[in-house]
Structures are given as structure tokens and as C-alpha cells.
Design goal:
Blueprint: H1 4-14, H2 16-26, E1 47-51, E2 54-57, E3 62-65, H3 80-89, H4 102-113, E4 119-123, H5 126-141, E5 145-149, E6 172-176, H6 181-184, E7 192-197, E8 200-201, E9 207-208, H7 211-224, E10 227-231, H8 242-247, E11 253-257, E12 267-271, H9 273-276, H10 281-284, H11 300-310, H12 315-339, E13 344-349, E14 352-357, H13 362-375, E15 378-379, E16 385-387, H14 394-412
Parallel strand pairs: 3-15, 5-6, 5-7, 7-10, 10-11
Antiparallel strand pairs: 1-2, 2-3, 4-12, 8-9, 11-12, 13-14, 14-16
């Protein structure tokens, strides 16, 4: 049987520069970084560069990247199309401090993909976009309660893990049971201003919601005159028209972020014109208009990268990627069944895959799997997360599946 301690010790010995960089970072950054999802023990791998679907560590080791920056690196690393778009900016100037035409261009691109976003405003992250979408819904309805769901994640200040989140904003949240009509129905009441849901929970275990559940929420919002918000920061990459288009359930507002910025900081929220016109002084009058500003909202770097990146996101490209992810998930299931290995199972949809572990040794198996993959040149999320990007191929997926098979064989023997 594979010993986790042996794998971890091998990792430590093989990555002295990562360890040294981590120890330096700990002196100034609590936890050694400013993105907690990267935490792993005894220390995280420190990366130096990336190209295609590979990343290179500070210690010079090359890994096939199956985390894809937790869905944000849809285009792979150092994509030449995006690289060229950023080079263009140096000839025109940046941080111009005024309106640029590219804001409207990107807005039109997003609305073409997600028609629920009739009017759009930009910001700098999905967290920020979710905050503004909810605040807008509260103002529009004049109510205070927000229906959310267990294990949902709408940013670091609006997440609902089983253990709770002391950093949550002090909204009046009602926590429903994700993908459960029976568990949510009794919570509905006329004081609800907004219902916010991820069509697939990424941080919450890569759990997809059923069409029936989302349609139930659509009907509930209509009956309550509440605002239904889809957080599609992650799921908009699972279909050209987002999961709302794939399932035919259209929200009142939508939030996007992550990959849509082409790898740069980005967020956007939008929705029905009557809702979003709360930000329009030309139709509402200045005294009746909500004020939303931000120094880097619609910055020219992100706009140019996002517009260039949008040309890479076609319906055909996303279908190929989802088919590849479905094959990976199904084949991994088949490996577990054929091996009689019940300690691991897989969830998800298309190109996003959750790896789950159960039993008394669940943590040990999870960490052993993570370090075993690193030993053989594959990087996934430490929590058990796999995400494909547009530069993954059948060959790279086959190699990962072969490694999963070897892990199961060695762990059991």
C-alpha cells in the first residue's frame, strides 16, 4: 500500500526551492499566500511559469495542469492570442481615466452568449460582481432576505460551507438545501428579495443542479416577485450560452467572472433592463441612480484580453472540451468499479470534475492521491478538483487515467 508519509517526504526532498519560497512568504503573508485555495501541507508547490496545458515549478519540474486555475485558465497558459492582445495596449496607453469603446464591445459579446444579461456592468472579480448583483436586487425589491444554498460559493464574503463562514457579509441569508425542492419549498416567503444559485457548485463539491430544481426556483421567484440570480462565474464555460441556455431556465440577473477576463481580473453583473437601469442617470435622473464605480472597472488590459479570448470560446470548442471531461469522468468511474476501490468517486459536468473520498481514511487517501499525481507530473486541486482547458487533448487525458489506474493498483496492494 502507498504510504502518504513517504509521498509527502519525497515531495519535500524534491522541492527545496518551493519550500524556501514558502518560508519566505510566511514571514510577510499569513499562510504564505493570498489565495487560500492554494493551501496544501506541508507547503504548496510554487510555480514559475506556464505554457499550454503545462506549468513549471520553481524547482524546474514540469506538470500537466489539470486544475486550470480552478476554471479561470480556460485558454491554457500563455495563450498567444491573449498575449498578442496585451501587447497591443502598450501602443495606445493604459489607465486612461475615461470611457473606452471596448466596454460596449465586450458587453455585446457577453450579451450574445447570455441573453439574460440585457444590460451589463463590469467590475474586477466574481466576488465583487455577486456583491453588486445582490445589493441591486435588494434595492430593486425593497426587501432584505436572500435565499442561498448549502455549500454555495459566491466569493469569500458570501459562501456557505457546512462549517459556516465568519467572513460572510451581514445580509439576512436563508440557507436552503441545494438541488432539493422539498428542502427549499418550506423556506419560501414574501420577504425574499433575491434567490442566488450556482447551476453547478464548484467549490461546493462540483455538484450540478437539476433542471427541475432550477425551474422550481424560476417559478418561485416569479410567484414571490423576487430576483432570480444565476452565479455563472464557473458554469458559463460549460455551454456557449451558459447553463441557463443549456437547461432553458433564464434568470433575472447573471454574474460572470473568472475565465471571461482572458486571465486578467474580471467580473460582471447584469440582467433585465428595468433592474439594471437603476444605474442609468440618463433614464432615472441622477438623484434616483445607484452609484457604482471602481478604478479598474473596464480597464483596457482586461477588455482587450477578454475580447480576444472570446474568439477562442466557440460552441464547438466547448462541446469538445465537455466531451473530453465526460470521458475522463466515466473512465475514472470504470477504473474504480473494476478495481473494487470504493474510497474514491467522481462528480461534475463536462470539463469540471470533483474527486471525492470517503471512509475513515478519506483525508489520507485524498492527500496520497494528490502527492502521487505530483510525483508523476500531474497537478490538480488539493481539495480534489480537476478542470480541463482548451489545450488538453485525448492524449493528456489518457495519461492522467493511466496514472489514476496505477494509483488505485498501488494503493490497494
Amino acid at each position: 500500500m502507498l504510504a502518504k508519509d513517504v509521498l509527502v517526504e519525497e515531495f519535500i526532498v524534491s522541492n527545496p526551492r518551493s519550500q524556501k519560497a514558502f518560508e519566505r512568504a510566511q514571514e510577510i503573508l499569513p499562510g504564505g499566500n493570498t489565495r487560500s485555495v492554494f493551501n496544501s501541507f506541508p507547503f504548496p508547490l510554487v510555480l514559475e511559469s506556464g505554457c499550454g496545458c503545462e506549468v513549471t515549478s520553481l524547482d524546474g519540474k514540469v506538470y500537466t495542469d489539470f486544475s486550470s486555475d480552478f476554471t479561470a485558465a480556460l485558454y491554457g497558459h500563455s495563450n498567444p492570442v491573449i498575449y498578442d492582445s496585451l501587447r497591443e495596449i502598450f501602443s495606445t496607453g493604459f489607465a486612461l481615466g475615461g470611457v473606452v469603446e471596448k466596454e460596449a464591445e465586450l458587453g455585446e459579446i457577453i450579451r450574445k452568449r447570455l441573453p439574460s444579461m440585457g444590460k451589463i456592468r463590469f467590475c474586477n472579480s466574481g466576488t465583487e460582481a455577486n456583491m453588486y448583483a445582490l445589493a441591486t436586487a435588494l434595492v430593486f425589491t425593497g426587501r432584505k432576505k436572500i435565499l442561498v444554498f448549502d455549500r454555495g460559493y459566491h466569493g469569500g464574503t458570501m459562501s456557505f460551507p457546512d462549517k459556516g463562514n465568519p467572513l460572510n457579509l451581514p445580509h439576512d441569508f436563508i440557507i436552503g438545501k441545494f438541488d432539493s425542492i422539498e428542502g427549499t419549498q418550506p423556506l419560501l416567503n414574501a420577504d425574499i428579495a433575491a434567490i442566488i444559485v450556482e447551476p453547478l457548485q464548484a467549490a461546493g463539491g462540483v455538484r450540478p443542479a437539476s433542471k427541475e430544481f432550477l425551474a422550481f426556483l424560476r417559478k418561485a421567484a416569479d410567484e414571490l416577485h423576487a430576483i432570480l440570480i444565476f452565479d455563472e462565474c464557473v458554469t458559463s464555460r460549460l455551454h456557449f450560452n451558459g447553463m441557463q441556455g443549456a437547461l432553458g431556465v433564464i434568470p433575472d440577473m447573471t454574474v460572470v467572472g473568472k475565465y471571461m477576463g482572458g486571465g486578467l481580473p474580471f467580473g460582471a453583473f447584469g440582467g433585465r433592463e428595468d433592474i439594471m437601469n437603476l444605474y442609468d442617470p440618463y433614464s432615472q435622473g441622477i438623484e434616483n441612480t445607484l452609484f457604482h464605480s471602481g478604478t479598474f472597472n473596464g480597464n483596457i488590459f482586461t477588455l482587450n484580453a477578454a475580447i480576444a479570448a472570446s474568439k477562442l470560446v466557440t460552441a464547438e470548442a466547448l462541446l469538445r472540451l465537455n466531451n473530453l471531461g465526460d470521458r475522463l469522468r466515466a473512465s475514472a468511474h470504470a477504473i474504480m468499479e473494476a478495481s473494487g476501490f470504493e474510497d474514491m468517486y467522481f462528480t461534475g459536468h463536462g470539463s469540471e470534475i470533483g474527486v471525492h473520498f470517503r471512509g475513515d481514511d478519506a483525508v489520507t487517501v485524498r492527500e496520497s492521491f494528490f502527492y502521487y499525481l505530483l510525483r508523476h507530473g500531474f497537478m490538480i486541486g488539493f481539495r480534489g478538483f480537476i478542470c480541463l482547458n482548451l489545450l488538453h487533448t485525448d492524449e493528456s487525458v489518457d495519461r492522467l487515467l493511466q496514472c489514476i489506474q496505477r494509483f488505485v493498483d498501488e494503493y490497494q496492494n
